[in-house]
Amino acid sequence: MAYKTAMIDVGGGFRAIFGCGVMDRMLEDGIDVDMCYGVSAGAANMTSFIARQHGRNHTFYTKYAFRKEYASAESFFKNHNFANLDYIYGTLSNHDGEYPVDFEAFETNSTGFTVVACNAEDGSAKYFDKSRIRFDDFDVVKASSAVPVACEPYVVDGVPYFDGGIADPVPVQKALDDGYERVILILSRLRDEVRQQRKDLPPARILERSYPAAAERLRERYKTYNGEIELAKRYEEEGKVLILAPEDLYGLNTLKKNFEGLEMMYRKGYAAAEAIPEFLGK
């Protein structure tokens, strides 16, 4: 029986290299899904996956990410963004960039793509579809990746957006509601980690002044994330979801990296993908 299949990559800054390993293994094994749901860095990972550019994400995390133009305090003071989204998803990724997205391959691939962002003004989840990603226009990926306070909101079609992980960090229910019967869920935290509120409180206080609705979503994110993970585990017991998660974070977090940790996380993702063919009935 052929199932309607989806894959979710929840992102997670530099930890999200775990998903790059998963997707490179899938490309090697010739495994496709019908729909990809990308949150934050997960949306960037999936752009390369849909374009079938094996190894592209690995280069970004292990080479470009160590440049000060990519992510640094200097970038924050200069551009008001710790991660320079225009550099990452523009200068490097456009057709004349150092490692462009193969946009023709991306567009002709029949795999659908949903990019999750958070409306900064009302705190609602926004689901952009594949058609909103255009030649040399990866604005929705930038919007989904705009970590509050570390980045300014990214404006798409006149509306400011923050990181999708605030509004719908683990969109498993969304995928099932959209009609997908088998969902691969890629996490970048330990599968049993319970998210705490305390790290979100200081940025929420800063955000409160400009975007109170988004600040409220940020304060509640720990509940949203933990609830959605519990739901995913229940669906996993029913055979509808396969959760792939690292067993260690190797010293990585959203904005902190080290080369060895990135390599280890990538390899663990690559190994974890071994479970996918059986789950999808391939």
UniProtKB/TrEMBL annotation:
Motif mapping: DGA/G: 163-165
GO BP annotation list: lipid catabolic process
Pfam families per the UniProt record, alphabetical: DUF6363, Patatin
Active site: S40, D163
SUPFAM superfamilies: FabD/lysophospholipase-like
Highest taxon in the source lineage: Bacteria
Gene Ontology terms, MF aspect: hydrolase activity
Coiled-coil ranges per UniProt: none
Motif GXSXG: positions: 38-42
Domain PNPLA: 7-176
Keywords attached to this entry: Hydrolase, Lipid degradation, Lipid metabolism
Protein's name according to its UniProt entry: Patatin family protein
